[in-house]
UniProtKB/TrEMBL annotation, chains A, B:
Role: Zinc phosphodiesterase, which displays some tRNA 3'-processing endonuclease activity. Probably involved in tRNA maturation, by removing a 3'-trailer from precursor tRNA.
Family of this protein: Belongs to the RNase Z family.
Gene: rnz
Enzyme Commission code(s) on record: 3.1.26.11
Biased composition (Basic and acidic residues): 335-345
Cofactor(s) for this UniProt protein: Zn(2+)
Example of a GO MF term: zinc ion binding
Cofactor note (record): Binds 2 Zn(2+) ions.
Top-level enzyme category: hydrolase
Residues reported to bind Zn(2+) 1: 62, 64, 140, 211
Keyword set, alphabetical order: Endonuclease, Hydrolase, Metal-binding, Nuclease, tRNA processing, Zinc
Protein's recorded name: Ribonuclease Z
Length: 345, 345
């Protein structure tokens, strides 16, 4: 199970960070899922090995533009590339309306079926061959949901001694049982996979939050999760100055929650465009990291664009691409109007 | 008068070219105008000195997504930066509908007034302090307009001998007359600027086409224009293979028209995403250039992203940034499905 951050900025892009999007790779080779789709997500994809042709489903946490404005372009480019496989768009209803209006008013038709599913349905549940997905309601200026992804179809170990003891010798039946299939032997006996195999590890589970000013809402969802990916738009000091209106989390809030929930891994993202990667230009993004590190004892990661993480079968999260902040002095956004931005991250 | 190409790809972005957008700088320092706004235009702007705070008006040639999907993000970012000055959006009505739906469905409000003007009104004419703008109907799959920009308020030369002969001595009156203002002398005489000044050059005029399969439609608009900027989506060979459905121009079509119209300068843009900047990867974009160069004897330019051009007061067009194609082997798009793309550039 692998994650690729395609955008880690809140509100608007900077030279170093695009607005929010995250790729989750799992299941069949090259199959992947997209969580949020800020403007320029399709451009970011051109710099990865991910292709819109193998995209299985798009999940949108909430309707704000920094999480959705990339949808029309990405959907049209998939069509121009000749996609025919249906694509799920799992999102709040206003996002469907936005997409339908964008396609309709720009004379755009898709070469494949776009299957809308309401992420805010009360009994929401979605699964495919590889993953099961549930939602958690968050607290933000607009309706917003976290998505919890739990893997399915874990690899089974054969109970060989029991098989031999019951007179079922090695052969094609063993392979079928290991795949989870029940088998009828030549003598007509039904052999159930569940009786002769075992799954000897926990399923991987990842919780991906949207914008949210109350991480505690994720307490139940984070049960048995190895990873939480959550926004940390600013430090507590900036959050206090900005006031409660934007309804974002500070690094301190998320870190405290992750610590109390006993989460082994926390990845922070969705940083305010004010934060710079150059330590000599204030505010420095290292302040966000330092605040979280002071309150959380698990493995803390600061997402950056194109950072990749691998979650192994035994639940260990490792960065597979160089970590830390890009060493690009002046790579943040241009000087801007901080006061105005305070209202909009 | 200066032009900065922010995107030069048709249909979809590649690693080397974004979808269509063009900045025109003229008038007051840092004032500029945007023509078309494909997805990622605001990202491109971060790599220029242009700011959405000084943007005077946006002109959209037609509704297709590769010319419009960047609008919601750019408009919202201007708001997050605290813009208060009204902004003109001069576009076909479906583009207004797209923008209004995008803002409405994503809970986005703007900090400034967006003034819609219908670019397809029969008597369309727009002007501000620096430019007058007219439209020409083109031939494309959807309704599409070219915009002709003609400069206003050209600098005046004082007719000093006449002033002296008429007893009007050097003084503040001369300055006012040169600015185009009429003056009342101390003795009560009205002195008209037009009688004592002259404009000794032609106004600069630039025609910026949208998508169009019939350049001849621009014959009247190109009268007295120094520059035509027009799409050349592919070579004639590819255009013939693709067929007439997409309604684009080949390089040969545009070059023949520019030659017959006696245009001194032609800038080609909106190249199919298939074209590569690496001469060893086919199809090579140099094929498009060679086709045009064989039929057009004026100054031919192949636009590329971030290329800048200056049109001097005497009508000379010069590239102010390094020209030619980026020397980035493999910098084009990933291998894709040519046949599907034929239908969608």
């Amino acid at each position: 199970m692998e994650f690729t951050f395609l955008g880690t900025s809140g509100g608007m892009p900077t030279k170093a960070r695009n607005v929010t999007a995250l790729a989750l790779q799992h299941g069949a080779p090259r199959h992947w899922y997209l969580i949020d789709c800020g403007e320029g997500t399709q451009h970011q994809l051109l710099r990865t090995r991910l292709s819109v042709m193998q995209l299985q489903a798009i999940f949108i946490t909430h309707a704000h533009g920094d999480h959705t404005f990339g949808l029309p372009g990405l959907l049209c480019s998939a069509s121009m590339n000749g996609r025919t496989e249906p694509l799920f768009l799992i999102a709040p209803r206003p996002v469907w309306n936005f997409v339908e209006s964008a396609l309709g008013n720009t004379d755009s038709s898709l070469s494949y079926e776009l299957k809308f599913l309401d992420s805010e349905a009360e009994d929401f549940y979605w699964e495919d061959h590889a993953l099961q997905v549930t939602t958690t309601e968050l607290s933000h200026r607009v309706s917003c949901r976290a998505f919890s992804f739990t893997e399915k179809n874990l690899e089974r170990q054969l109970l060989k001694e029991k098989l031999v003891a019951d007179g079922i010798g090695a052969g094609p039946a063993w392979g079928a049982l290991q795949k989870g299939e029940d088998v009828i032997l030549d003598n007509g006996t039904l052999i159930r996979s569940g009786d002769y195999t075992t799954v000897n590890r926990a399923p991987r589970k990842v919780v991906i939050g949207g914008d949210n000013d109350n991480p505690d809402l994720l307490a139940a969802a984070c049960n048995k999760a190895q990873v939480l990916i959550h926004e940390a738009t600013y430090t507590q000091e900036v959050a206090d100055r900005v006031g409660s209106w934007p309804q974002h989390s500070s690094a301190a809030q998320v870190a405290r929650f992750a610590q109390s929930a006993g989460l082994p891994n926390l990845i922070l993202t969705h940083f305010s465009s004010r934060y710079q990667y150059n330590p000599n230009t204030k505010p420095y993004i290292g302040e966000v990291e330092a605040e979280a590190a002071g309150l959380y004892r698990g493995n803390l990661f600061m997402a950056r664009d194109f950072a990749r993480y691998q979650l192994s079968r035994n639940g260990i999260l490792e960065a597979t691409e160089p970590q830390g902040f890009p060493a690009q002095p002046g790579s943040g956004q241009r000087p801007s109007h901080d006061k105005a931005r305070d209202q909009h991250d």
